[in-house]
């Protein structure tokens, strides 16, 4: 290991879970490093409002992300930018490969979260960035005088539909059944919007376009099998998320869907490999559960390296 610096603890990901771990490690005077491929905050950066974080009545997602980042920075912690592509285990340390080179750590805390699931229908890939987007809050203002479509009925879909309905001319909600997974209060708020149309028991079949951008979506009613075309200028799919864990292929630590399995200390079956936040197999993925995981893993990882 000559000329190779071994970091005691490496945090991969700077969302609410990763930044919480950093705060707890910094306050424990532990030596560690935190890296992320994007701006700190994770999905908080594309969340319009956070209304259920204890001690805060309501706050914009980017504002909460910045407050966490400021707290991390105030503790003397800097966040490095790198995309981790593979982690492997040597005898008593981990080798973490990234687009910025290799890093070495006694313990690793994975906090990479999830990425939006694709529809996998014709036209989606072709028009991604030309009307197909996975963030209505980010791109809704591009379609102020147009009709747009949101696909899905979970909290993300409904919350972003509420936001964008106040900007665009019309919002079409497409959902494969009649039951909503989102909070009832949010669903009722959206139903009260005069410029929102619901297409239930319906699935998207194809994204249409003119080569320059989206012009419509072909949808199928799964109750009667009929197809129709809805003219829209943008499509925002919210059909679930997949765990960002491809870099863990070296280890047998994931379930069949790719989410990481951990014990009560957030450690996987591989000693020294911890995982926190949305990337874990769990029943609830929220900012508050991510911060919980981060606190637990930070203290557990610090105990782990002290035993080494």
Describe this structure in words.
- The protein has 308 residues and is an alpha/beta fold.
- The protein has two domains: 177 residues, FAD/NAD(P)-binding domain (3-Layer(bba) Sandwich), CATH 3.50.50; 120 residues, FAD/NAD(P)-binding domain (3-Layer(bba) Sandwich), CATH 3.50.50.
- The protein contains six helices and 18 strands.
- The chain is elongated.
CATH class of the largest domain: Alpha Beta
Helix amount, in percent? 10-25%
Rg over alpha carbons: 21 Å
Order of helices and strands: EHEEEHEEEEEHEHEHEEEEEEEH
Find the structural class using helix and strand composition.
Answer: alpha/beta
| Largest sheet, strands/sense/barrel | 7 strands, mixed
Architecture of the largest domain, according to CATH?
3-Layer(bba) Sandwich
Count of DSSP strands = 18
Distance between the termini: 17 Å
Principal-axes shape call: elongated
Mean pLDDT: 94
How many helical elements?
6
CATH H-level superfamily of the largest domain: FAD/NAD(P)-binding domain
The name of the CATH topology of the largest domain is FAD/NAD(P)-binding domain
Q: Can you tell me the residue ranges where pLDDT is under 50 for at least 5 consecutive residues?
A: none
Query: How many domains in all?
Result: 2
């Amino acid at each position: 290991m000559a000329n190779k610096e071994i970091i005691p603890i490496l945090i991969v990901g700077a969302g609410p879970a990763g930044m919480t771990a950093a705060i707890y490690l910094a306050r424990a005077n532990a030596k560690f490093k935190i890296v992320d491929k994007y701006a700190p905050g994770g999905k908080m950066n594309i969340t319009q409002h956070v209304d259920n974080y204890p001690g805060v009545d309501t706050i914009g997602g980017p504002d909460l992300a910045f407050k966490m980042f400021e707290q991390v920075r105030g503790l003397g912690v800097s966040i490095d930018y790198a995309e981790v592509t593979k982690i492997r285990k040597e005898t008593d340390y981990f080798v973490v490969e990234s687009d910025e080179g290799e890093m070495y750590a006694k313990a690793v805390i994975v906090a990479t979260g999830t990425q939006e699931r694709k529809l996998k229908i014709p036209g989606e890939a072709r028009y991604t960035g030309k009307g197909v987007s996975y963030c209505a809050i980010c791109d809704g203002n591009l379609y102020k005088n147009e009709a747009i479509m949101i696909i899905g009925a979970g909290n993300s879909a409904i919350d972003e539909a509420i936001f964008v309905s106040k900007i665009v001319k019309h919002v079409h909600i497409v959902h494969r059944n009649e039951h909503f997974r989102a909070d009832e209060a949010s669903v009722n708020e959206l139903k009260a919007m005069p410029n929102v149309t619901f297409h239930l028991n319906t699935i998207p079949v194809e994204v249409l376009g003119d080569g320059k951008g989206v012009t419509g979506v072909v949808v199928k009613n799964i109750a009667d099998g009929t197809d129709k075309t809805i003219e829209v200028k943008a499509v925002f799919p919210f059909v679930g998320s997949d765990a960002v864990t491809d870099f863990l292929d070296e280890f047998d630590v994931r379930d069949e869907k790719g989410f990481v399995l951990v014990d009560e200390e957030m450690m996987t079956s591989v000693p020294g490999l911890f995982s926190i936040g949305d990337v874990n197999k769990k029943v609830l993925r929220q900012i508050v559960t991510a911060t919980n995981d981060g606190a637990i893993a930070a203290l557990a990882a610090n105990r782990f390296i002290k035993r080494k």
